[in-house]
Design a protein that fits this description.
about 1000 residues; mainly alpha; 51 helices; about 60% helix
């Protein structure tokens, strides 16, 4: 039987998605015609009805309006299931759909936008992915036109509700515009070009703050359109007049250079089918067996005359969107660099080849070890190096292109580009992706002028690198003065860390580190003076280790100063040429230190059961554990990190001790306030802050080459430098985050070993601390480590379990002042947290709802979506959910009755807690009556729809208690039916009929 939905070849197997939709339609077709049944469907019936309605709308356009009305009547999940069905069809079947079904699909998308369906953002992104670059077929151009028209017609909704979709749309249309503008005389493209340009310019001019979130690839796309007059003006303002964009904080185009583009944008420009085939090629096809797979890929996706431009997007995806695991890297699967080399060879047009090379090297130009991933720059380096034996022309042309880019990409900001490319070369060599840069500079096959050019560039770039030691990342302000910009930046960094899924191996080397976390591999130059008298640095380290062991065994004491010299000299090893076989690895050195400490009765990394009193704090503050942690915090060096990871793998609670140290430092810094030591006789211990003052002393000593007599280190009479203290605390939390990120790859490979899980485990060691300090610790975690703690169920449950009600109330004050966030702004995360909290104890539920109310009352979370999802999910059992419902009731009472929130309350199902809607409306009628009834009128007007009166059609279910309360309220005021009609645009009889009693 011929399919009404799909274009299917004669011998093609029946599609299972279509089969499930068609079977549901054939089974329920009688119910899709008026009069509609009044019964409430079971969950299974509801799913089948959604499938049947979707099939009917797509295949029977003449009945579409009736079936969509029926969908509005039965919906109980905010259209979530229906939208998921649509997204599945788009992802898997779009280009098989018959023409009429595609037209109906776009109409359905418009309807889903109108009702603000749950998941509509994902559906729009899926449609954007179906726009194929370089495809000038009628179907593809039609989809381009329909989507951009939809975005312009729904502009206000997109700006207010789904700004991320606007960013995705801008990225997509900037990219396809470069194809469409290559044929200025084609009349078929004229109207499409105009509307695409209108949309892109509108986003750039009116919502530039959203565009900034795209990152550096926004500049790459705009450069490809610089010949278009409308974009010439944009480009001129970007370079010369950034103030024209009226975006606070944007002062120069270099700010975009420094912001990495998220991998989700690169997925926008390849279809789901193309993504699947590329991932299969890069994870399953063996090197040497790839030719037939490559030939099939070329025929399938790159056979059109203009499809070649897709290679640009594919290379960008391979570099930044596909990071293979360690197992894949070490196997004989075809590597990324080989696939990119094949794609480069497939380019027939010179401008396409140039853009592919730019896509390959783009992250090199602005590489920053603190935010960029080495996996993004690895393919280009390996392609150059591995091409030398047989394809030296490839190496030559790539290297020449890179050096030309450095000189010509942005001459005004060449220093940024020089630093980025130099950092890329340095990181790739240090991480073991290649043994040395000499493989290029000493290659006989390369032309002498090119090698000389590369040598001059590397020498000049290295000479410009700063040699002084700086305190680690200091982007977070002091604890008492949170910055909304900083919090937003932290959120972005967290989402990108979670989404990048970096491989634990950065290339072909053996180091298992996630390079997206900033970790220093530069020598610790402060202590270079400790070893200059020795013939070799490694000899000095071995001598120090020997002295450490002999001292410990001879006197049964630990010489902390020798241990300090060992650690810093070992970190400084990278700054000197190591000759011969150096026996001390981070693992062996950590083992020696632990063994000697244990033999002398010193327990390494013993977690604090409580914050010690002033009288007995010296053993902790001056311990070997504290010294090791301090040294790592100050340097954040790779070798010291490897030592910590080695101890952790051998069962030492390194994470717990590191967190205890950081939290204690933060607590004493918080207590410091505006302390001024009044006289020389008062010691730091007298202030109750020995930990902080010793940390500051050691920091100044670290900066001054180990000298304890530096003037900065004398804190006995100085006023506390609060900016320095804030920076020190921030550096400590940065070091702990770094340890967690690398521990995820170094410890257990189980799926649940995430940085957030490790943080939760470490927090358990603080459970016996005093309540005041414990409360401050949780506040610090949510402020400084928001990317790892916000919305984490285990951490939040631990919080409400350990803290008493008084501390919870104090946290509510701070949350209300937006000092930090506990739950975040992800509605799904909050929903699942609430769902799981129904199984907690009653006291814990009371506490968590106090926090939820305080945060949601001042956050941007769409409470209406959250309430609808909770009530429609069926999780509200009267016996276990009373506290949650009480919390929702109190939350609604402190929110304004907006049209969206009032609409959600009016549409709540008539299941458990039937009077909830009336209980919400009643206080609004007292405190915000005018806003309430304006919102009600707005809600009812939307329900009516411009195409007909939905109130008179059977099936729309407005909440019983809401309607009953409204009628009672108006009767109490002595209003007649006509008055109600004039106020709410719906007759009293029609409203009563909705009760369906």
């Amino acid at each position: 039987m011929a399919s009404k939905l799909l274009k299917i070849a004669p011998l093609e197997a029946q599609n299972q998605i279509e089969l499930s939709l068609r079977q549901a339609f054939e089974l329920l077709e009688p119910q899709l015609r008026p009069p509609f049944p009044l019964t409430i469907p079971t969950p299974e019936e509801y799913s089948q009805l959604n499938r049947a309605i979707l099939y009917g709308v797509l295949c029977e356009p003449h009945f579409a309006k009736i079936q969509i009305k029926y969908l509005h009547a039965i919906v109980t999940d905010g259209y979530c299931f229906f939208v998921n069905l649509l997204t599945t069809i788009v992802d898997e079947l779009y280009y098989k759909l018959v023409k009429s079904a595609r037209i109906q699909l776009i109409s359905l998308v418009s309807v889903m936008i109108y009702v603000s369906a749950v998941g509509i953002d994902g559906l729009l992104v899926s449609l954007l992915r179906q726009i194929v670059g370089g495809d000038f077929s009628d179907g593809n151009l039609w989809l381009c036109f329909e989507l951009v028209s939809l975005f312009l017609s729904k502009w206000d909704w997109l700006v207010e509700e789904e700004p991320q979709v606007l960013r995705n749309g801008l990225y997509t249309y900037l990219r396809v515009l470069s194809d469409h503008c290559r044929f200025p005389g084609d009349s078929k493209l004229e109207a499409l070009r105009r509307i695409e340009i209108e949309f892109c310019i509108k986003v750039l001019r009116e919502q530039f703050h959203l565009c900034l979130r795209i990152g550096r690839d926004l500049i790459r796309l705009l450069q490809d359109l610089v010949h278009v007059p409308e974009f010439q003006a944009v480009w001129k303002d970007l370079v010369l007049n950034p103030g024209e964009f009226r975006t606070q904080g944007f002062e120069d185009i270099s700010q975009l250079y420094r912001q990495r583009t998220s991998s989700r944008y690169f997925l926008l420009r390849i279809t789901p089918e193309m993504e699947s085939q590329l991932r299969f090629l890069l994870t399953h096809v063996k090197l040497g067996s790839q030719k037939r797979h490559q030939a099939w890929f070329l025929r399938k996706f790159l056979s059109g005359s203009e499809r070649e431009t897709l290679i640009i997007d594919i290379v960008r995806f391979i570099c930044c969107g596909h990071h293979p695991s360690n197992d894949i890297i070490q196997s004989d699967v075809i590597p990324r660099w080989a696939v990119i080399g094949w794609l480069l060879k497939s380019c027939r047009k010179s401008y396409v080849e140039a853009n592919v090379k730019l896509a390959l090297f783009y992250d090199w130009l602005f590489f920053d070890e603190r935010i960029d991933n080495i996996m993004n720059v690895e393919p280009a380096m390996l392609l150059m190096v591995n091409s030398i034996p047989k394809y030296v022309a490839m190496t030559h042309t790539l290297l020449e292109f890179l050096l030309l880019l450095v000189d010509n990409f942005d001459s005004e900001r060449k220093d940024i580009i020089v630093k980025g490319v130099t950092s890329s070369f340095g990181m790739l060599a240090r991480k073991g992706v290649v043994g040395s840069i000499h493989v290029l500079t000493s290659c006989d096959a390369l032309s002498p002028p090119l090698k000389e050019w590369l040598g001059r560039f590397l020498k000049a770039g290295v000479s410009k690198e700063p040699q002084q030691v700086h305190l680690p990342c200091t982007s977070v302000p002091s604890f008492n003065l949170p910055s909304s910009t900083t919090l937003e930046t932290q959120t972005v960094i967290a989402g990108e860390l979670t989404e990048s899924k970096c491989a634990p191996n950065d290339g072909v080397g053996t180091k298992a580190f996630d390079s997206s976390v900033p970790i220093s591999v530069e020598p610790v130059t402060s202590y270079s003076s400790l070893v200059v008298n020795c013939e070799r640095v490694e000899d000095a380290i071995e001598n120090l280790v020997h002295r450490f062991v002999e001292t410990a065994r001879r006197s049964n004491t630990i010489d902390i100063q020798i241990l300090e010299k060992i650690l810093l000299s070992f970190a400084n090893l990278d700054g000197h040429k190591v000759t011969g076989a150096f026996a001390l690895s981070p693992q062996s050195l950590s083992s020696k230190i632990a063994k000697e400490l244990e033999l002398n009765g010193h327990k390494l990394f013993s977690p604090l059961e409580s914050i010690p009193n002033i009288s007995n704090c010296d053993d902790v503050v001056h311990s070997a554990t504290a010294l090791i942690i301090r040294t790592f915090i100050f340097s954040q060096h790779e070798r010291l990190l490897e030592m910590l990871l080695s101890w952790s793998r051998h069962g030492f609670p390194v994470g717990k001790c590191l967190l205890s140290y950081v939290l204690r430092l933060a607590y004493e810094a918080h207590m410091a306030g505006n302390v001024m030591l009044p006289d020389n006789s008062m010691k730091a211990n007298d202030l109750g802050m020995p930990f902080l003052f010793l940390h500051m002393d050691e920091y100044f000593s670290f900066l001054n080459g180990g000298r304890k007599d530096s003037p900065e280190a004398d804190l006995s009479t100085a006023k506390v430098d609060h900016q320095l203290v804030a920076n020190l605390v921030d550096g400590a939390f940065s070091a702990y985050r770094c340890f967690l990120m690398y521990s995820r790859n170094s410890l257990d490979k189980a799926a649940d070993v995430t940085p957030a899980r490790l943080l939760f485990s470490d927090l358990g060691s603080c459970s016996k601390w005093e309540k005041q300090i414990l409360k401050f610790s949780f506040c610090s975690i949510f402020y400084y480590l928001s990317d790892l703690s916000t919305g984490e169920e285990d951490i939040i449950k631990l919080l409400v379990t350990l803290l008493d009600q008084a501390d919870i109330v104090l946290m509510q004050f701070e949350i209300g002042l937006k000092k930090y966030s506990i739950f975040g702004e992800n509605t799904e995360t909050i929903f699942y947290l609430i769902k799981n909290s129904l199984n907690w104890g009653l006291l814990e539920q009371h506490k968590v709802w106090g926090l939820i109310r305080s945060e949601l009352a001042v956050s941007k979370v769409q409470v209406e979506k959250l309430i609808l999802e909770i009530f429609c999910s069926g999780i509200l059992d009267p016996n276990s959910a009373s506290i949650a419902v009480e919390g929702l009731l109190m939350l609604c009472s402190c929110r304004m009755p907006t049209p969206e929130l009032v609409g959600a309350i009016m549409l709540l199902p008539n299941t458990a807690f039937q009077d909830f809607s009336a209980a919400v409306l009643a206080p609004w009628a007292v405190s915000n009556s005018s806003v309430l009834f304006d919102s009600l009128a707005n809600f009812l007007e939307k329900l009516g729809n411009e195409k007909g009166d939905l109130f008179t059609s059977t099936g729309i279910r407005i909440n019983h208690s809401a309607i009953s309360w409204l009628l009672s309220y108006f009767n109490t005021l002595g209003m007649k039916d006509n008055d109600i009609l004039s106020k709410l645009s719906v007759s009293i009889l029609d409203m009563k009929s909705m009760l369906q009693l």
